[in-house]
Amino acid sequence: MKDSFARHIRRLRELRGLSQVKLAERAGIAVRTLRYWEAAEKLPRSAELESVLEVLGATADERMRLYSVVPLPRIVKQSKSISRMPSADDLTQPLDLGDIIRALRQRNGFTQSQFAAAMDVTPTTVMRWETLRSLPDQSNIDRICTLLNATPQEAAVLRSRELLQNDIPDRLDISSLRQQVDRLGSLASQHSPLTDLFALTLQHYLHFASIREPEAMYLLGRTLLIYGNAQFQKEYLAVAKTLANRSVRLFQQVGRYDVLSAQAVNLASVFIGGKGDDQFDRKVAYLGDALAHAYSDEMKLRLLCDMALYSSRAGRFTEALCLLGKVQSEYRSLLLREEDFNYFELSTGRVLLHKGEPDKALAKFEFVSSGNSQNAIHFCYQAQAAIAMGDIDAAQRMVCRASELAVRFPFSQTRKLVDQIALQL
């Protein structure tokens, strides 16, 4: 398998007249990684291979030949016989016990060595658990569940010590793939450790499907966006940046400029750097370029709100309020929808908070939080406004509410924001 892949990738590179150094540089991977591939010493990760294929301008046939000689992820290879994927509600059907332990460890921010020290075992023991060369005994399983904050479903799987097979069928039609992307979104919203495994699996199938089904490219963009947001929440920022940029490119390729595309552009804009206010100018310019190509009113509304936020961060409050005014005047009908209205109100509140008008900002935040879409971030914004007004008691109440909602996700960006606000009190 490795020999066949090595021959194919070397031939493609030579046909394009690129050296290993040039190709690696343009694809954003290490030269030694490409050398390992061509020496048949290692096989590629999906993200790395896609970057190389984009640089090479691989045709559909060339992609098909390459993917046909790249093995499926280990979690997919283990089973080919069952007819459905696990549902988001069926977390007692894991992909693999070793994968669950690894995913829980990574979700909690432990390296293998750190986890081994906390468990009072050797790193080799942890490696053997995660690769299924041995299984932890019951006492270690109990300690793993406690240390890694396993949910009741995850703990039940670990304590049963049953290695249930992954149930992804050999072939999925576009309708089935669409359902699996929805399930991935549901898993990600629960911060389930299965998110990473589902995302990896779906990417592989969607790469194949995109050769014949144009919609699969759009679904791949959705998958990368969901996965990117999950990685951002876990503060794996380098991974999140790569996934966000790939998602934006895919949405552009298929010409889908909708709300999801706006979300991808927003996530990608987070990673645009610069010194001082210059970084916000660059972010506004990036969003403005996306706005110029947007044809969906929903996308335009969100991009204008995001541009207003960055403008206010740069201290250009008149510009920010003009952008929000444009949303009110041109997209009034969209503001009748709760989701779009809440996005607009939260953006307006944050601009007012930056502008030094916390009382008006608090009114916006409280109105959104009075609806059905309460979440920890809403109460964080209210706490920030209350602190700016000097109302420490109200801020403490809001932080407590935010902590209650964020307690399930101790390593998320939201949890970090809650902790930062708590330190101010």
Give helix and strand order, one letter per element, not per position. HHHHHHHHHHHHHHHHHHHHHHHH
Oligomer: single chain
Largest sheet: none
Per DSSP E runs of 2 or more residues, the count of β-strands stands at: 0
Task: Determine the strand fraction and express it as a percent band.
Answer: under 5%
Low confidence ranges: 72-95, 163-170
Query: Structural class of the helices, strands and pairings?
Result: mainly alpha
The number of helical segments is 24
**Outline:** globular
**Mean pLDDT across all amino acids:** 78
Percent helix, as a range, is: over 70%
Q: Over the alpha carbons, how many angstroms does the gyration radius reach?
A: 24 Å
Q: How far apart are the first and last residues' alpha carbons, in Å?
A: 59 Å
Tell me what you see in this structure.
- The protein has about 425 residues and is an all-alpha fold.
- Among the domains are: about 1-60, Orthogonal Bundle (434 Repressor (Amino-terminal Domain)), CATH 1.10.260.40; about 95-160, lambda repressor-like DNA-binding domains (434 Repressor (Amino-terminal Domain), Orthogonal Bundle); about 255-335; about 355-425.
- About 70% of the residues lie in helices and about 0% in strands.
- It has 24 helices and no strands.
- The protein has helices at about 1-15, 20-25, 30-40, 45-55, 60-70, 75, 95-105, 110-120, 125-130, 140-145, 150-160, 175-190, 195-210, 215-235, 235-255, 260-270, 280-295, 295-315, 315-330, 340-355, 360-370, 375-390, 390-405, 415-425.
- Helix 2 (about 20-25) packs across helix 3 (about 30-40).
- It is globular and about 65 Å long.
